[in-house]
Amino acid sequence: MPKIGNIQLPDFPLLLAPMEDVSDPPFRALCKEQGADVVFTEFISSEGLIRDAAKSVMKLDIYEKERPVGIQIFGAVLESMLRSVEIVEASGPDIIDINFGCPVKKVVSKGAGAGILKDIDLMVSLTEAMVKHTKLPVTVKTRLGWDHDSIKIVEVAERLQDVGCQAISIHGRTRAQMYKGEADWKPIAEVKNNPRMHIPVFGNGDVDTPEKAMEMRDKYGLDGAMIGRASIGYPWFFKEVKHYFKTGEHLPPPTMAERVYAAKRHLQMAIDWKGETLGVFETRRHYTNYFKGIPNFKEYRMKMVTSDDSASVFEAFDEVLEVFGDYEFA
Ligand SMILES: Cc1cc2nc3c(=O)[nH]c(=O)nc-3n(C[C@H](O)[C@H](O)[C@H](O)COP(=O)(O)O)c2cc1C
C-alpha cells in the first residue's frame, strides 16, 4: 500500500485535486467525510505568501478533520519558494505539494506552474532545495510535458524521485492541451512501470466514473487516482468509487435530502470560515452540481446563486426540499 513519506495510505487511495477557489477547507472536509484519502489546498502563490498577501495567507487554513492534507504552492524563484516552505510549515500540513502543472498564462509567463516544464533542470533543483528545507514530505503535481513533442515525463519523474520527492501526481495532458481532448494515461503508466520508480505515482485527468477509476488501477496499474472536476458539487464521488471497488455495484445517487443537507453544511462551514459575504459568494459554484438535472429548477437556482445573504440561500434550500423532496436522481 502506498505511502507518502511516513503517511500510510490505503490501497489505491483517492486524492482530492487542488482546485483554485474550490478546494477550500469546507469543501475538503466534505470530500474527506465522503471518502477522500488525501486532500490538497488550491495552489498558493509563493510570492503572495512571502509578501503576506491576505488572500494567500488565508488559503493556509486547515481543519484537523481533513488530515492528511497537502498545501500546494507555486513559484519559480528559489528564495521565495524556500521562504514559503517555512510559512507553510507553520500551519502544520502533512504534505507540501509543488505545483508544476498550472497552464494559465499569468502563472506560466513567470516560469511557474507548467512553465517550468520548459526548464526541467530548474524544476529538479527547486524540488531538491525544498526537500532539503523541510522535514515534511514534498510531493509534485505536474503535467505530461510542455507540449506533445517534449514529453519526457518518465525521465522527469525519476529525477524528481532522486532528489527526494515523495510522490508524484500526473495530469495526463500537456500544457499545450490546457483542458482540451482526453487525458492520456499511457505516459503515466510508463512512469509507474519504470523499474527505478518506487514512490507512489498518482494518475489524474478525467476520472469521472467509478469504472474509470478502476481502469486507472487495473489497466494502467497506477497507485491512486487524483480527482478534480468530478467532485465539484459532488463530494459523494469518492464514496461511490470506493463502493464500486468493493462490491462491483453502483451506489444509488444521493437523495435530495442528502444534497440539501450537504449544501447547507457546505454553506455554513464556508460562512464560519470566511464570513458571510465571501462564504455566500464562493459556495455558489457548487450548487449547479449539487442540484444537477432537476427540471424546472431555474427559479431556485437563481435564488441560490444571486442572493447576497445566507438566510435567503438557506431558505431556497428548504424550499427545494419541500418542492422536490421526492425527486429521483438518475
Ligand atoms: C476550477 C479548477 C481549478 C484548478 N486549480 C488547480 C490548482 O490550484 N492547482 C493544481 O495543481 N491544479 C488545479 N487544477 C487542475 C486540477 O487539479 C486537475 O489537474 C484537473 O482538473 C484534471 O483533473 P480532473 O479531470 O479530475 O478535473 C484546477 C482545475 C479546475 C477545474
Automatic annotation (TrEMBL):
<comment type="function">
    <text>Catalyzes the synthesis of 5,6-dihydrouridine (D), a modified base found in the D-loop of most tRNAs, via the reduction of the C5-C6 double bond in target uridines.</text>
</comment>
<keyword id="KW-0820">tRNA-binding</keyword>
<keyword id="KW-0819">tRNA processing</keyword>
<feature type="binding site">
    <location>
        <position position="141"/>
    </location>
    <ligand>
        <name>FMN</name>
    </ligand>
</feature>
<dbReference type="InterPro" id="IPR024036">
    <property type="entry name" value="tRNA-dHydroUridine_Synthase_C"/>
</dbReference>
<keyword id="KW-0560">Oxidoreductase</keyword>
<dbReference type="InterPro" id="IPR013785">
    <property type="entry name" value="Aldolase_TIM"/>
</dbReference>
<feature type="binding site">
    <location>
        <position position="72"/>
    </location>
    <ligand>
        <name>FMN</name>
    </ligand>
</feature>
<feature type="binding site">
    <location>
        <begin position="228"/>
        <end position="229"/>
    </location>
    <ligand>
        <name>FMN</name>
    </ligand>
</feature>
<feature type="active site" description="Proton donor">
    <location>
        <position position="102"/>
    </location>
</feature>
<dbReference type="GO" id="GO:0050660">
    <property type="term" value="F:flavin adenine dinucleotide binding"/>
</dbReference>
<keyword id="KW-0285">Flavoprotein</keyword>
<dbReference type="InterPro" id="IPR035587">
    <property type="entry name" value="DUS-like_FMN-bd"/>
</dbReference>
<keyword id="KW-0547">Nucleotide-binding</keyword>
<feature type="domain" description="DUS-like FMN-binding">
    <location>
        <begin position="15"/>
        <end position="311"/>
    </location>
</feature>
<feature type="binding site">
    <location>
        <position position="171"/>
    </location>
    <ligand>
        <name>FMN</name>
    </ligand>
</feature>
<keyword id="KW-0288">FMN</keyword>
<dbReference type="GO" id="GO:0000049">
    <property type="term" value="F:tRNA binding"/>
</dbReference>
<protein>
    <recommendedName>
        <fullName>tRNA-dihydrouridine synthase</fullName>
        <ecNumber>1.3.1.-</ecNumber>
    </recommendedName>
</protein>
<dbReference type="GO" id="GO:0017150">
    <property type="term" value="F:tRNA dihydrouridine synthase activity"/>
</dbReference>
<dbReference type="Pfam" id="PF01207">
    <property type="entry name" value="Dus"/>
</dbReference>
<keyword id="KW-0521">NADP</keyword>
<keyword id="KW-0694">RNA-binding</keyword>
<comment type="similarity">
    <text>Belongs to the dus family.</text>
</comment>
<dbReference type="InterPro" id="IPR018517">
    <property type="entry name" value="tRNA_hU_synthase_CS"/>
</dbReference>
<dbReference type="InterPro" id="IPR001269">
    <property type="entry name" value="DUS_fam"/>
</dbReference>
<dbReference type="InterPro" id="IPR004652">
    <property type="entry name" value="DusB-like"/>
</dbReference>
